[in-house]
Design a protein that fits this description.
elongated
Length: 172
């Protein structure tokens, strides 16, 4: 096997190193200059876009700054119940199976103080109150609460007790 002989000319070595160094410096300067030009162009484009958006925003604000003659709902996701009349005290919601003092407090905070209000409240809404109160209250099943509230409102206490016994024993 013939290995080619590498001859090293020490006289031309400094010249080669100098040429390579000059080429590297020239490439570095050219790259820096090109990057600067490209970045400057991108910054100019972004500044132009910002100015356009500022103009659009100013136009939108002038359109929406008109006075409104009708009331605007600010917290429309929450149903507002009328206050309880002074001649009627809040009902004891704890007589309903599954409602204890804490859940009664949760319902009261949401504006449910009477059997009638509980009876008319949707199960989905009651479940959302319990969910909002925390995982401890999500375990409760409010599916029979409106029915029990209806019996309590009509003062059918014996029927209510039978239903509660049925619920406690686990029979549907």
């Amino acid at each position: 096997m013939n290995v080619p002989a590498i001859s090293l000319d020490l006289d031309s070595l400094p010249v080669a190193v100098a040429e390579i160094t000059v080429l590297l410096i020239a490439a570095t300067l050219a790259g820096w200059f090109l990057a600067k030009v490209i970045i400057r162009k991108r910054i100019d484009n972004l500044q132009q876009l910002i100015e356009e958006k500022k103009y659009e925003l100013a136009q939108y604000r002038t359109l929406t700054n008109t006075t409104v003659d009708y009331p605007i709902a600010t917290n429309a996701h929450k149903t507002v119940y009328p206050p309880i009349s002074p001649d009627h005290a809040p009902d004891d919601l704890k007589v309903i199976e599954g409602i204890g003092p804490k859940i009664e407090e949760i319902l009261n905070k949401e504006g449910i103080h009477t059997y009638e209000q509980l009876m008319e409240t949707s199960l989905l809404r009651i479940a959302s109150f319990l969910k909002k109160a925390g995982p401890r209250y999500q375990l409760h099943d409010p599916s029979t609460w409106p029915q029990q509230a209806g019996l309590a409102k009509q003062q059918k206490w014996e029927e209510l007790e039978r239903l509660k016994l049925k619920l406690i024993s686990g029979r549907s």
